[in-house]
Every structure is written in C-alpha cells, then in structure tokens.
Amino acid sequence: MSNFWKEIWDSKGLGKNNDLLFLDGYEHLEIKADSKVICKGISDTLKINEGESILEVGCGAGFLARELSIKYEYVGVDYSQPLIEKHKSLFPEHKIQCSEAINLPFPDKYFDYTFCFGVYQYLPDDEYAIGMIKEMERVSKKGILLGDLKEDATREQHLPCPKNKIKDLGFKEVDSFYTSGDCYRYNAYKEYINDLE
User: Fold this and answer.
1) What is the 3-state secondary structure (H, E, C) of the chain?
2) Domain 4-191 belongs to what topology?
3) Distance between CA atoms of 39 and 33, rounded to whole angstroms?
4) Fewest C-beta atoms under 10 Å: which of 96, 145, 157, 190?
C-alpha cells in the first residue's frame, strides 16, 4: 500500500493547526464544505432515525462527527493514529479508534448504518476499495453510503470510482451534497431489507 496519503494525514494530525476543514482535507475545495449540509445529506439518504447507531470509516479529526454525534450513536475509525489523537483532543467525548477500513474491529451487523465521506479517492487501489465496502456491509444492518466519490481522478494519486462500477456493486447513485448537479462528484448508497426476528 502506498504511504503517500497516510503521510499527509499523519502530518496534519501531528501539526498544531486545529482547523477541521484543513485537518479533514476540505481546505482545497473551490466550494464551501458545510458539515451540517453534508450530514443532512447522509442522514436523509440513509433515512437514519435519531438514536440509531452509525459508524464513520475515515472519521479524521471530526469535521462530520461533531454534527452526527449529537443525534446518533456515533462511532468513528481512521487509519491515521495522529489524526485520531487530534480528534480525541478536540472532541474527547467521541467514540473513535484507529483501524484500517478493510479490517473493522466490530462484530457482524453491529451498526445500523456505516458510511465514509471523502475517503474513497484516497484508497490505494480497487482491491482495497472492494475490501472496505465488504467490511462496511459486514458491520451494517440497514445500509451504507459512500460519499464524495469522483468518477474521474482529479490528481494522479486519487482513486476514481466510475459510476458503472459502483452500480455493478448494487449501489444507487445520488447527487453531490456540495452542489446540485456537480458533474465531478457523486454519492452512492445501499439499503438492506432486514429479516424479521
């Protein structure tokens, strides 16, 4: 696995900057990234009810966690220990831990929903991406969301996510949460029908 992105995230976590837009990689966007708007998009798409449990894969320093932990039973994981430590220093009440996305430390069907946002493009390759999706599905009861996907890479180091590939995996497409009609970014989700107990 390439260390290119890991070194960037680790260096952000080790730095003195506490700006969440910078720490979680939103500082370069040409549009305003609003955590309330993104979190509403996630909760509306997945139809999350207040008090339900959610896991964020790639929680970073807490840009989305600060909103989601108010209404939901929130847990976050990230592969960067320095970012996890930064997150803990900013939001000590959050339930977060260091973990790789392809080896989530939770039992099957542990959460109602699992999502990642702004993570896919930083994955090392398609094999890792499929492994992450399988793990997200394994720990989820009701659905998963892959957010802020790029159909085409905008940097050489980005992993693109073509819409036909994600549809072949059973996902439904939904527009970008940043701006309607954004042709570069989109989101995808899956819902599960639970067996009656």
Assistant:
1) CCCHHHHHHHHHHHCCCCCHHHHCCCCCCCCCCCHHHHHHHHHHHHCCCCCCEEEEECCCCCCCHHHHHHHCEEEEEECCHHHHHHHHHHCCCCEEEECCCCCCCCCCCCEEEEEEECCHHHCCCHHHHHHHHHHHHHCEEEEEEEEEEECCCCCCCCCCCCHHHHHHCCCEEEECCCCCCCCCEEEEEEECCCCCC
2) Rossmann fold (3.40.50)
3) 11
4) 157
Closest CA to 110 of 162, 150, 57: 57
- What is the block-wise mean pLDDT of the chain (197 residues), using blocks of 10 residues? 84 95 83 88 97 98 96 98 97 97 98 97 95 98 96 87 93 85 81 61
Q: Which residues contact 25 (CB under 8 A, 6 or more apart)?
A: 60, 118
